[in-house]
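Figure S4 source data
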Amino acid sequence: MTNKLRVLAWGDTTHRDFQQAYSAIASDDHTQLVGPQEPYALVVVFQARPGTVCANDVEVLRERMPLAGLVVVLGSWCEGEMRTGTPLPHAERLFWYQFPAWWQRARGQWQRGEATDWQRPSGQPLPTTTSLAGKVIAIDAVDHASADTLVTTIEDHGGRAIWQPRRQTPRLASPPDAGVWVGSQLDSAEEAQLAAFQQTLAEGAPLVVLLDFPRADREQAAKQLGATAVLGKPWRVEQLMASF
């Protein structure tokens, strides 16, 4: 029988921001949710707002299983935590919209017997292995800086990136294999622009939407318009690649 990854979920697990994240753990056939008195390999702390999770309680969990990984998943109201709050120490910090891609990658590493993201020193991501060879990725961004960064990242992973400045008709022989749309807060004007961009992609193509700081309702709106993943800025290379 295959050993399961034993995960302790702690904190604001029932908050609406974390429905998708908590469900990803609970529904995973290779994962077992356990209580704080049982052995665990990973602690996932859900924090809806700054201060809703007691740092002392988390420290007790860390001391109980010092080799266990510690990840804090932050809700929409934690956007300014680094400026105005006191982040939990010794933990990898992910916002709620970053967790699904992180979980898919890290859980896969564990299942294959590889070193996992939660075992690495903070700030030192493991190299990505995703290849975009042969893929054409369309980019819809309003500024050169955003477009240039995305083009470089995609081409570094073997893909071909084409920047389509907003409101310009794309000149492609065939629909792109995937798209990246860069926005702000996804207001009504941006919703129309995103919908138009989605129509230029191949049927079923991945569509990654980058927003300044996604809220749950904006993520839902983006996905109703065809987005397959919604990430916040600044985005992580490994999470962008996983979204394709």
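Figure S5 source data
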Amino acid sequence: MIKMPLVNMSGAATLAAAEGLAALGVGDTVRARQKYAEAGAILEAEMKVRHGGGEKQLLRFLAATQYYKGGDYQKAQDLAHKIDARVLPKNVRGLLPQFLKDVKLRTSPGYVAGIRQTLLKLWQQKQPAESLAVLQEHPYVLPPVSLAFVRAALCGELANFRAAALFFANAIRQAPDDVGLVLTTAAQPLLLRSQDRLAEAWEYAQCQVELVPHPVTFVTASIICYHRACTAHAEDRKTHFAEQLAFVEKAWDVYQKLDLMQQNHPDMRAYVAFGLELAGTMGLRQGNKQRGKEVWEQAVKLGANASHPWKQRASVADPSEEVSQAVEAWNLSERETHFFTRFTPEPSIRQQLEVVGA
């Protein structure tokens, strides 16, 4: 990371820069650009009222560093080239050559494409920590939604589940109509479950329902609860089933409040229907026949037009009599594999990193 001059700035510039740093910390590069540009403009204005000497040049350098931090590398370079290094304070003068070298790199035509290629190679080599370090150093090579999405996937790979959920929340907040984006939240928890990492899957699912309350995350949590119930002692099974049912009821409630475009998305319908089916089955197995049958009927109604590789039965006249056969016929593992394979972030990440241009 390039060294910046450690010099006190005016109060207004300091505040704007601090707000830019805070925005960058949560991946809000739009606000970071705005606040660092504001800090740079304040310092430029202060510079212009100085008549000359080291103070004027120092203010010019400080303004250039703020534009740099905000991703306006061209403006940073233009200012830096006007600095008279001879009159800079000695403790700052030595930083200018490396700064000029770095802004020259970042204004070169192949800069964005090169960094994206580096990120793509690191992703293919399964090096999430190194990828996050590159993004921290070069946060403006991806559009804001893509940056948050890629960070979410990388944090999930590192088992930093709360950070992953926060980045997913950031991405979804910026692109609320992107159904494919929210569906990718299901991939890693389901994959963890398939790898017998149930405790981690549950930890991630809990972070998701807290920070990304959505039918998809509620269904994911309900699926994980189902597996917790299946592996629990008899005395704990009812508790886990109650959690599963509570999550699927939340999913159903929130699902009905989505706009019709999202409700009718084939993958959304299929996933919510799957969660309902699973909860209905567990209800029947636990002896809660009435509620189990109600949830089953909701699943059948919702799943009738869902696009997935299994055919829903048109109706369930008496699911309590056929529940064991239904469970076997579902091939639960295969269906979960279908979802985390279909919702994997891999294709989207490749697409984001292969597109040249910020």
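The radius of gyration is 26 Å. Confidence is low (pLDDT under 50) at residues 305-321.
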